[in-house]
């Protein structure tokens, strides 16, 4: 928990921002919205404490996705960063017609809010992202301004899925629930005008329009030609359904003289097999400019969704002309026919029309520039209105209670263990170091905090383990016992510790609590090649997750290299346990490994950047 605030934020009024998604990297629309709102608050003179309720990782992991989270970048941007673990399993389906407004807001979120305002009584406002977290506002003390950033309209959202014969896998509710959630706030923020009007008819709370501001990155220039059209997005349902329809339309009749469709972002992981003539996947890109450098024109062929399509604002900010459907440009108040296409086929025809007509391409570029200019003026005016409201509240609050102040204590308590060629330090403190410490080394594990009911109040204190490779650290690696920890992906995935230190760490954490457990059977050995039949959670069967695998046998440990995961048709292993209650169903596989096969029994620690697995190898499981 980054309780040591930067010097330049010490005298600024503070606002708590609570969100169920990380603020970095901005690889999805809701993250871009969160980042834009926080940037507006920063420009307005506020210091931001960000509380990340980590349920997005849980949601997407169940669909085989794992969007990246950059806690280090978040630490740089905000005064304090807090992590609220998603210990409660979030339901993706309901037997009712809609989710109850509070079904996605467990007790631990409210517990955090109550703790925060006891530790930081000087904070004058709290902004909650999404109406389904509104229950947390009930734990906010009097005098604090309460805001909800709605992002989307959620009442009846499930009806958008019917034309696609699909079921929603994100939150939806009814108008009664949405109205009840909004009423918990003092101010409701809407991302676009039509939704502002809708919310104003649903609640008596003040509703403000706040479109996200997209600073101009590149000037508009007319492309010399349209060689590539681009689509950038996250792998959510609206994006998948919409681009899937457009890909089929674009391929129909495609010839090499037509533009190529390039697709970038997290969505590429959910589009296997779509590459071919006229369509190319760029994968996940760390920098937006790397995508827009490869797209002469951007398409937004959206067929469903609400809120505002952040991909459109980003494309315009990079000076790219845009063609899209009415849904795709909803909130931008378009007037150009190419910005109000009926469906995917109409978007295709509009692209082909400008690709073969230089004058039409120039008109589209100028129309896109005018659209962006009008939108930017609206966004900046709305931002100024919000900031003035927040500052007025802060002036009134401090005039009534001028002595408000909070106290924090970030003094660390640490202890070290030496052996196996490493120094392992356990620090107990409230600070958050997502990757490394200059003195203590690489962060290797973080204590998982108990869920609601196991602790009386939320506490920011937690244990973190750091490791330094030290050749003179003789003796056996320490045995830390049956810890409940989350492993840091840096040492697991990036291999930034030497092999001997990695092996010693595996030995130290050999008895940690696993997220999933099963049995395995060695079915083949040849030289240093080992084949093991076992079960894996469905999300790992593709073999694309970075993994580290250690064989723990007796007092020793060795690292094995995973070469391949091969799905099997027959399930020969039946023992399997999912401790989290939220992993996808296990599937039978064969693991192809390189290393030294165990002479007797043992276990494999199967470590990934988002989970811990343990595969037991009974003595009889080894080949004689």
From TrEMBL:
Organism from which the protein derives: Methylorubrum aminovorans
Domain of life: Bacteria
Any matching Pfam family: Glyco_trans_1_4
Gene3D superfamilies linked to this entry: Glycogen Phosphorylase B (3.40.50.2000)
Protein name: Glycosyltransferase
InterPro entries with a match to the protein in the record: RNA3'_term_phos_cycl-like_CS (IPR020719)
